[in-house]
Structure formats: C-alpha cells, structure tokens
Amino acid sequence: AQTVTQSQPEMSVQEAETVTLSCTYDTSESNYYLFWYKQPPSRQMILVIRQEAYKQQNATENRFSVNFQKAAKSFSLKISDSQLGDTAMYFCAFIRTGGSQGNLIFGKGTKLSVKP
Amino acid sequence: DTGVSQNPRHKITKRGQNVTFRCDPISEHNRLYWYRQTLGQGPEFLTYFQNEAQLEKSRLLSDRFSAERPKGSFSTLEIQRTEQGDSAMYLCASSTGGGNQPQHFGDGTRLSIL
User: Which member of A43, A45, A102 has the closest CB to residue B55?
Assistant: First the structure.
C-alpha cells in the first residue's frame, strides 16, 4: 500500500521569503505521479504543481518548484517570494499510473502561514 | 469551464437520517471522484466513476454509503442512517482521461450530524 507523509504540521514564513515543505512517500510502484495541492481557508483545493516519476527534471510553476528525489522517495515543495495569498493548507499527493486505480493518496497536510 | 459544483454547501441533520449530496463535474470530464476530509486530515478516497461505470467502491466506508452517476454526468453520494462519525467535508473532483490527469475539486459539502 502507498503512503504519503508530511512531517511538518505547521510552518510560517515572512512575506517575500522562501519556504520549503517536506513530503515523503512509500510505494513499490515504478510509475506514478506526485502532486502538491493548496487548500486556502474555506476555499476549494487547487493544484499547485505536478511531477511525473519517470522525469528526472524537477517541475517548476512560477514561484513554485519541487525537489524530487526518487531514490529517497522525497518530494518537497519550495515556494519563493512568499505572498500573503500563499497562506493555506498544502497537501502532498500520490497516484499510481496504470490499472483501474485512479485515486489520489494524500498526506495529512502542512498549514502554511505567510506573515506580513 | 464553470468548475466542479457541489450541493448543498452545508448539511445539518440528525443522527439516523439519510442524506444525499450532488456533484456536477466539469462538463468534458469523464472521471468523477468522491473523497472525505475530516478535520486536520488530508482527503480520503471513497469511490470513483469513469463515465457511468463505478470502477472502485471498495473504499466506501460502510454499506451505508453509496454513490451513483446514472448518465455519466452528475453524481450523488448517499449516506443512510447517519452516525456522529460521518461528520466531515465531502469533496468531489473530476478529471479527463487517465488517473495521472489533474483532479479538479469542488468546494465540498460539509456534513454536521447533531
């Protein structure tokens, strides 16, 4: 069975600074995708960034980038130039490819507070 | 693209009552997912559909839970004989194609059991 672990329940960062959120996962699959989702307070969950396991190059989306270490089963999210609007719960998620299984497996989340 | 729509946003009911939630996915999305999220936890997968076919339902929490997507468009999630432990946020998501495609989430339905 696959598991996703986020070891930082809460983090805070000053506006304009950089913060890194940690995520590790456990799987015996070789083909899978990893995601970071953001859930602002009382608002819907939105996709931040996606990484394909067979790609060695780390994904980037504007101020968001990941450090994907496949051998270590680590998938951290770096937020540069933090903005107040980045305040949210961040969830790391895993999905295997192939077969009929299509569900995301989520970690427990990290609550990020960006302070002015 | 009007996004994933869920109704109602909030549902308060007494223990033992039946409740039904509706999810309207993004129109061109053939996959629809249901998750449950309790306080302080990440979403937990319940079931999903590809078009009208329910491809995975073993994760439904008990036989009190059931879901349908009769015409491959909107879906309903029903909980019969609700219990206190059913209080949670119920999230719906939809996607195109295979499981690696990003899932787009709705605002959720918050269920409170009195």
Answer: A102
From B31, B41, B103, residue closest to A108, measured CB to CB:
B41
**Residue B26 to residues A19, A34, B45, B110, Cα–Cα distance (Å):** 33, 22, 19, 21
Task: Point out which residues pair with A74 in neighbouring strands.
Answer: A24, A69
Kindly report the number of other CB atoms within 10 A of residue B65's CB atom: 18
Kindly report the nearest CA distance between residue A83 and chain B, in angstroms: 23
- Condensed to tens digits (0 to 9), the pLDDT of residues A66-79 reads 999 999 999 999 99
Tell me, what amino acid is at B66?
S
Q: Which of A23, A30, A101, A104 to mutate to test the interface with B (most CBs of B within 10 A)?
A: A104
Half-sphere exposure of A51 (CA within 13 A, CB side): 27
Would you call B85 helix, strand, or coil by DSSP?
helix
Tell me the three state secondary structure of residue A86. Answer: helix
Interchain CB distance below 8 Å, A45 and B105: yes
Tell me, yes or no, if B103 comes closer than 8 A to chain A by beta carbon. yes
- List, for residues B24-74, the tens digit of each pLDDT value: 999 989 999 999 999 889 999 999 999 999 888 777 878 999 999 998 899
Paired tokens of A17: 């600074």
CA distances from A78 to A61, B23, B42 (A): 10, 33, 20
Asked if A60 contacts A68 with a C-beta cutoff of 8 angstroms, the reply is no
The whole-number pLDDT of residue A84 equals 97
